[in-house]
Design goal:
The chain is an all-beta fold. It is built from no helices and 16 strands. The chain has a domain of 39 residues: Ribbon (Laminin), CATH 2.10.25. It starts with 11 loop residues before the first strand and ends with a strand.
Length: 118
């Protein structure tokens, strides 16, 4: 019965037939597992693949390359192009953070758009 005092081990809410939504700090089909507090990330298990939208590691507090933000949900862009776009930094450098290109070879400029001769 969904309103039973012991449903979801008193650590969550019944949200459907045989389905618990666990309180922060608990996981499992019946909220039977306690998550180590040092691994909590916004109330969720920081070791879960879906934490940070699958684009970072909450435990290390780092996002994968190309993403920033608390949830690793903001795509880094350089002058209007995603960090992964082949046109980023005019195709002659790497976008290291928003609107900051590290140019390769003899390319210079904010967007690596100028070729200098030797």
């Amino acid at each position: 019965m969904p309103n039973d005092y012991d449903v979801c081990n008193r650590r969550g809410t019944c949200v459907g037939k045989d389905e618990c939504e666990c309180d922060p700090g608990y996981k499992g089909s019946q909220c039977q597992f306690v998550i180590n507090p040092e691994y909590l990330c916004l109330g969720y298990d920081g070791t879960d693949e879906e934490v940070c939208y699958g684009r970072g590691n909450c435990i290390d507090d780092e996002c994968e390359s190309g993403f920033i933000g608390f949830y690793c949900d903001i795509v880094v862009q350089c002058y209007g192009f995603d960090v992964f776009d082949p046109r980023v930094c005019s195709g002659h450098g790497l976008c290291l953070r928003s609107d900051y290109c590290s140019c390769r070879g003899n390319w210079i400029g904010d967007n690596c758009e100028v070729l200098i001769s030797d």
